[in-house]
Queue: 4 jobs
Job 1
Amino acid sequence: MTSEAFFDAVKSRRSIYAISKEAVISDEKIVAIVQDAVKHTPSSFNSQSARVVVLLGDNHDKFWDITTNTLRAIVAADQFEPTAQKMNSFKSGYGTVLFFEDKKVIDGLMENFAAYAQNFPIWSQQSSGMHQFVVWTALEKEGFGASLQHYNPLVDEEVRSTWSLPDSWQLIAQMPFGKPTAAPGEKTFQPIDERVKVFK
């Protein structure tokens, strides 16, 4: 694959909020995308600390019900309607990918490589961001639209309990996805020469 083809995929990835439950590819293909991303996306010291949960069908709906109920408890009732609409828009999608980092792995690295200890939590977040980008871009190329959300740590405990996940799994981000029902808005860019400097 040429760099041009790669960047075609990069450029097409956008935040898509209007999504539906209509299937675009098989569930098996979705899982294969996530598995390939987790297997081949880099991590510091090859720590492979990323953990990912794919929620489809009723499990997808359940996650956004959990998030809605959690927010309902902390948002004033007379101000909750916009939040409810946002949660419903995510729930209207086909599935959700939950991105975690395994703190047990990170803590082990901090202990075994003390000279770099303060960097491992930072490198962990960087690796998670790469995993998110790879999955997001791959789903986009298959015809899904997605966005990245962050309702952690509010929902962490109930998520781990509901799906019997280890306590060491720290939730980093949530990615609802589905078939786009509306195009994204226009994206603007700052001058690239203010953001990239070249010295020969």
Job 2
Amino acid sequence: MSEHLRTALRLAASGIPPLPLRAGKLPFGNCRSCANNACGGRPNMKSAGPCACPAPCHGWAAATLDPRVINSPVWVRAWGEAAAVAYHPGGAGLTVVDLDNAEAIAWSRASLPATRIVRTTRGEHWIYRGTMASSNAVRPGVDIKSLMQYARWLGPGVGATAALPGAVRDLAVKEPSQVRRARQALPVPLGGGEGECCHRTPTYLERGIAMAEQRITESRSAIHATVYRTFLAVLSTHGRCGCLTDAHVARLFTAAQAKGETARNCTDAWTNARTALGM
């Protein structure tokens, strides 16, 4: 049994879904049966889709806790060829703040709560308990790896794992200019501000946004269409009275990006929904 296979089995037993990496810290490419979307999954490896391929050929989505899969002949061959072991942070309920240089580490120490730290070749991984949308280059030298992403396994690290702080969540939603433009495009309240808008009732509005997030999160196919229809429903109910805030829009965009949508896709869907409603 290879050392990578032993490591993978230990991780799976502790609730951390592993996957093999080839040289260059890259996942194994799609096998012949899964190439060019032949299996029904996504060839860009952002989602496994309905694919039931036994090979570890769907990037982060191949990560598994099932020891029967990890020990299967095709996976054993992959472990033998692997250059390293990775894991899916989101599948373990974790978020990794990947700090690539000394400046990023200094920023993290000054800005984020202490948590479990794993040293890397160039910097550190700060591990938090909780999941969110993954995002690269949220600030210089800082990436976020959680849902739909993988991180290299470099050991358990040191320190106690803290809860995912809002400061990390904010990094993924406040930087993209597309999100800012979509927020700025929200319509002003109609009716000249006369009377109190019923949608401003906190419970009513919160329930609507939470249901929209859930609808996007639980979608298993036709993600683009689901996101658009959800944006359309939210705007038709809340978009004309000015009750939507930056935070509400950011929550919708974050939910969509966690399902694989880009910030540009979110902006386009938001704009198209507003256009359809004549806003």
Job 3
Amino acid sequence: MQIYLDYSATTPPRSEVIAAMATCMADSWGNPSSLHHWGGRAATALEQARLQVASLLNAPASAVVFTAGGTEADNLALMGVAQRYRVPQHMIISAVEHSAVEQPAQRLEALGWQVTRLPVDSQGRVNPVALRQALRDNTVLVSIIYGQSEVGTLQPIAALGQMARDHGALFHTDAVQVAGRLPLDVQTLPVDLLSLSSHKIYGPQGAGALYVRPGTKLLPLLRGGGQELGLRSGTQAVPTLAGFGVAAALAAEEMAAETVRLSGLRDRLFDQLSTVAELMPTGDRHRRLPHHVSFCVAADGDRVSGRTLVREMNLAGIGISAGSACHSGKLSPSPVLLAMGYSDRAARCGIRLTLGRHTTAADIDWVAMVLRQVLHRALAPLALTPV
């Protein structure tokens, strides 16, 4: 039995997406900037995709800038704002941002920018009071992740965004994990910039988007032909974006029912593992992504790390992910778990199980049983070898 529970890492492209991409490659392969018939067909396919992605956000199509993924969208948001200023200013992010926000922030610090990282509580949530206290006269941008990919916690984005808006600062949110799983309405949500990724919603890898509220000024990262309203030069990957558009349309159509289904499966898995003393749930248990389950292993970190469990579960035919990264062969503690107050050892022992449209109740029951067995074997007393 093969069970994939790593949907926060990537999702398998839907058959409708694959078909749309194949059709586009066969029929709309022209350069969408060309004025002839072939270019016109490509331009039509491109703008159809833009409209579909915009509809997922209740945004005007003209506010969607296509990128090569969520990472580029995050970089464009932060660096695009920062490049407007000749003199370094002040920016606020959270302590649990994705590296696609954290690393651009570090780069800006090296260029003289002041960056405040808001602390989070033990559940990974930002207190809006902390944002109010951190705002300064020269704060020009606040960037807070909407749904944390490692621990699943949802941030109070509406309150945080309104606070930034009232102060006169732009507000960006990385909504890569939220899109297609929870409603996103930029007509009511106080955000100026919002990042999306195609391969998190059953679209192809290599496509993303940045919503840019009309009137928001950015400078581009890439310069050239001036595509994407001058914010992202380069000939667009029309077939890939066509797939992104179909994935967005299907997500919008199915989201209400799928969110309820996934939330039920998520709670079922949490409940089935609630009696396993060695597993400590991480993140906010209720204010979390509907498809997301995560734990820290409360055991000997030298024997049972997150990576150990990923390997053992993979041998059992189950795909999950570890909550910490491996750099140059060294297991590093998760910065997210450290920010939430976990010890250095515990922060090496995070695991994440994320559910998707192919996940069933039977899958949940099987995974819970297998994970119990894997933990039992891993934590069993070491046998003594007879002399």
Job 4
Amino acid sequence: MPYQTARDLPSFLELNWQMKALRWCGKANRKRAAALELQIRELSDTVDAFYALLGNKHWIFHDQLSLEAVRTILATAGDDADRAEQLLIEYYNDAENLMLMLLPLRKLPAMRRRLELVERARQDYFAGRFYSTVHVLLSVMDGFVNEFETVRRGLHARKPEELHAWDSVVGHHLGLEHAHKTFTKGRSATQEEPVDELYRNGIVHGSILNYDNITVATKAFNRLLAVADWAFAREKEQQRQSEEPPTWSNVGRQLKGLVGRAREQAELDRANKRWRPVQYLSGSEALTSHPAYGPTHQLLTCWKRRNYGSLSELVTHDLHSKHGKSVRSAVRRAYEPYPLTDFEIRSIHHDMAAACTVTAVLDHSGGTRVEAELRWVRENDQADPRPEPRPGQWRLVMEPCHFLTRATPFPPGCPQTGRPAPCRSRSRPPSPLHI
């Protein structure tokens, strides 16, 4: 059954029990329990307030939404649901906010295969091609749900009760199940009036014509992230039987779960809000002293020396999770066809607190010379972005050699010395979605 309130989630119920137990463990633990109880209450109240205001507009609270941002939206909008919807759309329509929300999709193998489509939908979204965003994301959701479980049925073929998310905020009674009723609602007669709902069947079957707007496109991203949370919840539900039962010795670790994740997300949001993009150019000491310069130089040196084993240690943890022990072989297969003879690191564009783009000129055998952009993310061992001063390492985010398809060769007659920028038009930096 859907959860009537966020406080009904099993994690919340268990945490409440553990905090009651902590109160019997000394004065220090009583203070700690009181502080955690306040944080959990604020979290559940925020989730319930979000659904009370926006649930009937079929917006879904998912794990990647910033609690701080949602509280600001709710405080600003008051009881005005239309105003809250507008502010939420503005939050999604920020390129950095949307990118951060989409990054965890990499952890789902069936979604990882579709990230190229998600990236195209993201580019269309910011270019104002909302009709394209909607259609692409609808196909991604259907294909992902069809592949995710052994029961081969897409999202459109699922009944609402099949989308119950165990121990997840999308499992709220105004969450994913509730919104799915309009998602699959049939439309036989042609409708030309504007719509602001994600009517999947009517849109795909061509009976709803006027859906090319930012509201429907944003709801498509919102639904995609909610479906991802549903998938994470299904995995967690399958693993719960093997999880360590609550004991006095693991109370502290289990208490970190939900509250710790919310705190880390808030810290990351604040870091990106404070961050101001900066670019370091060739010839400056700041370029060579940038923390991403060393890993880039090491990666390109390993490539030049054909040391693919050491090179594989510099790619994102997600690639190691994807390929396991065969990651070195995967890296070799990707890089070996493009032997590198020389390179020059030209610039670093540090555009996000935990991400940057390094531009380098690559000389390949046969006289081919290209300028490529390598996307790096500073992440922890769980592949979560971590800006300074949090523990983390700079790692290459893209699939090995994926950036070569985006690299632009120098045109004939272009000088091969000096700044290459006048010789080509710079494309948008590669997205961290590509792994």
